[in-house]
Design a protein that fits this description.
Layout: H1 3-18, H2 30-53, E1 57-59, E2 68-69, E3 72-73, H3 74-97, H4 107-123, H5 129-149, H6 154-163, H7 165-175, E4 185-187, E5 196-197, E6 200-201, H8 203-237
Helix pairs in contact: 1-3, 2-3, 2-8, 3-6, 4-5, 5-8
Length: 238
């Protein structure tokens, strides 16, 4: 198995095993999780294919299995399963272990500040395509949460996101050359700000936020829709 494959496997292995823990019972949430991951992949896979073809980023074949789908290594497809799974498992675990939403009262202010910061960076860097597209898309999606979705889970999402930044730096560092002579995933720094957190482009933190928020949004929408329909189903049965 390839180096990139092992990174995916190690990322998902513990969350997958613990999903069957009798108190957490995360496997009961799979009916919401897997559609959420599929919906997010419908957005991110075409984006990934286009950016790879455009040379915004690319993959070192020395660390890959050698099997490609739509010009993307199979390991990259698995990335969009392994990382969201691990992070949504963390989201679910925190929801179970921490009953009170401590960040909830500040979620709107945090979101507004993020939108402003992302928009400013995007506006001043239209020629840096990775920066511009990622920051602008994240700002738009966060704005939708503020004024359209009006989600009540953003506080819990932020707790999960910032808690998973530590494993994010390990995993992304492993992909960007922190532990290897050459990176698994390389970037054209003329398309980004050129600011690295160790070996990781700063844009990856926003890319990760957008990807995880999209997963969480669909996950929560499906879960709440199911809860709303449950009383009606019971009433019909009775």
């Amino acid at each position: 198995m390839s180096y990139y494959f092992w990174i995916n496997l190690l990322s998902i292995s513990v969350p997958l095993i613990v999903s069957f823990e009798r108190r957490l019972k995360f496997h009961h949430q799979w009916k919401y999780l897997f559609p959420a991951m599929a919906a997010t992949m419908l957005v991110f896979i075409p984006w990934d294919v286009y950016k790879t073809a455009s040379g915004v980023w690319g993959f070192n074949p020395d660390y890959l299995q050698g099997f490609y789908i739509f010009n993307l290594p199979v390991e990259e497809w698995l990335f969009f399963i392994a990382i969201p799974y691990a992070c949504l498992f963390t989201y679910h675990s925190f929801e179970y272990l921490i009953k009170k939403d401590y960040v909830g009262p500040y979620a709107k202010a945090i979101t507004a500040a993020l939108v402003l910061m992302l928009l400013i960076v995007a506006i001043f860097n239209p020629e840096r395509t990775y920066t511009f597209v990622t920051f602008l898309t994240a700002a738009i999606f966060l704005t939708l949460h503020l004024f359209v979705f009006k989600a009540d889970y953003l506080g819990r999402f932020y707790v999960m996101y910032f808690a998973t930044l530590i494993p994010f730096f390990i995993v992304n560092g492993a992909l960007t050359g922190m532990f290897t002579p050459e990176p698994v995933v390389w970037y054209d720094d003329s398309r980004n700000l050129g600011i690295r957190l160790g070996t990781i482009p700063v844009e990856d933190t926003v890319y990760g936020l957008l990807m995880l928020l999209m997963n969480t949004t669909v996950y929560e929408w499906l879960r709440k829709r199911d809860i709303k329909t449950m009383p009606q189903t019971k009433a019909q049965v009775s």
